[in-house]
Amino acid sequence: MKLPRIKFGRPQQMAGLLLLVFLAECLWVVSRQHLSQQDYRYAECGREMWERPSPLAGYFTTCGNLNGDGTFAYRVAGLPLTVQRLVMLGADKLRKPENRLYAQGSLNGSTWEARHELFSVKYLLHLPFIFFAIWLGGGLWWVCRRLFGNEGGFFALGLYCFCPAIVRSAVTPNNEVLAMWGLYGLVYTAMGVAHAMQGPRRKWRPRIALLTLSLGLTAAAHLLAAIIGFVMAVVWMMYLAQRRRSYVMQILVFSAIGALAILFASYAFRVAPFSYVFTGGGARFWFALDGTRRFFLNTTNAPIVVATLVALLLYVFTRRCRYFGNTAPLIMVLLLFPLLTTQTVSQPWVWALPFLFTFVGGVFADVLEMRQRKMFLALSGTILLLQAVLCLSLLPEIAR
Question: Taking the model in full, what pTM does it have?
Answer without folding.
Answer: 0.92
